[in-house]
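pls ignore typos typing on phone
INI + seq
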Amino acid sequence: MREFKGDFSVSGLKLAIIVSRFNEFISGKLLEGTIDYLSRHGADLNNVDVFWVPGAFEIPITAKRLAELDKYSGLICLGVVIRGDTPHFTYIAAEVTKGIAQTALTTGVPISYGILTTDNIEQAIERAGTKAGNRGWIAAESVIELISLFGKMKQI
Ligand code: INI
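k done
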């Protein structure tokens, strides 16, 4: 039996972070969580590029363009979609989720999903560095693990 697991080595990786400005007081905290993870695991921040987009809806197309450059080991997508009084939330949340998944599947580039989709601001704050951790941190950890796992597939 052979078993493959990614590790959490960040050395030599070039990463792009796509983060939305909408709800920036929370998405900024996700970005802090991602940078905190990367710097505390020894990443060279000179090899980390941050791309700000207007809102979560613009994340997938930006991710796609960046993935197609073939310059990044992986992409980390960060955004915050909060339910309001209209169905708008449902459309944005669905499109960003579907778009990121589609981009990952069509390009094959490791991409992580650090998008909060919450019923209210409180739930978002809880997931951006307070009592429920920081989704930005988890998104960083996930993409690093995936990059490593894909690297190990080259031995097959
Ligand atoms: N964008 C978000 O990132 N989060 C939201 O909660 C949100 N809501 O609810 O409206 C949102 N809307 C903007 C959208 O992502 C686009 O930027 C905008 O429609 C322009 O294309």
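Residues 20, 22-23, 54-58, 79-82, 84, 88-89, 92 surround INI (CB under 6 Å). The longest strand covers residues 74-82. more later
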